[in-house]
Amino acid sequence: MFKISKSDYVLGVKCPNALWFKKYRKDLQVDMNQAILDRGMEIGILAQSRFPGGTTITAKPWEAVAVQQTQSAIRAGAPYIYEATLATDTGEYCAADILRNNNDGTWDIIEVKSTTRPHDYHIIDASFQRYVFTRCGVKIKNCFILTLNPEYVRYGALDIDELFALHDVTEELQDPDSVQAEVARIRAILAGPELGIAISKTKCNKFYECGYKAHCWHSVPKYSVFDAFRGALADEIYAAYGANLADIPAAMRDQQMHPGDIEAFLDNMDVINPDILRDFTARLKWPLYFLDYESIMPAVPMFDNSRPYQQICFQFSLHVQREPGGALEHYEYLHADAGTDPRPGLIKRLIEITGDTGSVVVYNQGFEQGRNSEMASDFPEYADALQAINNRMVDLLMPFRNRGLYRPCQCGSASIKQTLPAFVPEMSYANLGIHNGTEASEQFLAFMTGKQTPAQTAAMMANLSEYCGQDTMAMVRLLDVVQGFLNK
Ligand code: SF4
Asked: Which atom of ligand 1 is nearest to the CA of 210?
């Protein structure tokens, strides 16, 4: 008899292949992101304090003793049971984050999630839990998803009641017959041979990006129909013609996301549109300030005047060029005081060195402009100065996104991680100690929460400085490229 956990169930609903791989192809397993796992654990424990006085089931959900501990706590009438675990006689089992005693013979399931709203797969998860608990003779009255409350703004000590939001999802759950039918389907899949792989842009990215993509998608070309076309349309084209762009009818190219990309790829030709480049450079006003932020997104707000998952800027790099062809000056702010709010120091330094005139050049304006608007709102004393910086912003992404310049090796993307190697191949992120914004964020958050050794912190600071500096230097070089094409 196969044991089926709630994560097996959710995986089976998403994709039978994924569940089959989980059971039989341990060699394909990808490690979960430890930072995400740690965050889930921390939020789970914090959530328990919103429902205090409960009994914790200490055994692991797959151990029989967990069920015995849970049954004992239910019999004892515990007000709350944390990690309440039950298993059916047919092998389905689950641990509910919190089981709440309604003191009328019924219980509520409260599932804690580290998101700011319930997602579809949370409903599937809760449906399975209700099914298991009901099959085990526990009367479940309501099911809730407890998420972080995106409206909560911290001032002083954490307000645990306000930090979380309780969502009643009882009416949205799959009915028990549907769950039972799904369990039977999953059991049949697990009892059978490996399934033929059927990849799909929508399915493989549904709920979250599937961890088996490296295996299932290994024969998909680096640039394929999945890159050139949007979700469901990409799936239709793939089903009819395969992933290779050379195999699709020419008429289909009319529906590509960025006209001209497929033709550039098939002909191995650069796209150059001088009008777009000229429109962009005409907007530049000297001196130029090339600006890039790095940020953390603490799930639980760490500072006054911040919300769950708010982007908190902790670093900027600024390259300044005062006249065309002039020497570059470099400035930086990197917060070094763990546990304190980086924003006031960063704002002050930024305002000091960005002057009153000249364009502030960023790559993907929505990010830097959005952070400035938030900081203006959270620190009104700097609102005018931050708004003035926003008013001076120009977005270097635009001439690349609008295909003023495009190279086939960008594979449909205008992100700086694609445009830089395409146009400035001697500059690379590959040899840096930090390779992308996610790594920067995770490492700095570890520093801020006291999870680094002094040696780790020293190395991280040096790596962050190099990484963020490279982002602004990349903008300098990409603008040189744009101007170089115009001067040809
Ligand atoms: S990559 Fe796609 S097809 Fe493969 S297991 Fe994941 S969801 Fe299923």
From this structure: 6
